[in-house]
Amino acid sequence: xxxxxxxxxxxxxxxxxxxxxxxxxxxxxxxxxxxxxxxxxxxxxxxxxxxxxxxxxxxxxxxxxxxxxxxxxxxxxxxxxxxxxxxxxxxxxxxxxxxxxxxxxxxxxxxxxxxxxxxxxxxxxxxxxxxxxxxxxxxxxxxxxxxxxxxxxxxxxxxxxxxxxxxxxxxxxxxxxxxxxxxxxxxxxxxxxxxxxxxxxxxxxxxxxxxxxxxxxxxx
Length: 220
What we know:
BirA Bifunctional Protein, domain 2
């Protein structure tokens, strides 16, 4: 499949980084829709059937608003950084609707960095504890689930409260996120076959997704 992602997407994001204000965006809104929003909606629509072959419950919602595509607008209500727009275009294919603690397949695009992630980023406290308990209860299954490796480093210096600091999986218990990642270049994202390449990356992370879904009671 020819990639709907083009160099113009990255050119727009570079320009937005230099002109991150509402007046500039209003003048360039049609350009955003033409080279960023609409092509990514096409990508999401095409990805759906392929990702459902990996995990039948995956949600690929190609609506331009309220679907798998993240909003370009930043929530600045409580942020010191008041720039109104994100300079990254991103999407998330979740396995449960409207559940921030559901595992997902993720893709973000920004100038100089195209990132694919599979798993779970900073789940809520109850979900995090449930995952840690599942790691303790099913250590062999966890070893198989993470055989492709985990991205990032443990975020806690000590074992979380209530967990054995001498547990053989203690370094994983110190994590607050559980995901695999892959990096691509802009050129790769714009090349024919990128969708298939992205789906293969998601498929490699399926054992991790299955473990997390099993721990959280989410249908795969």
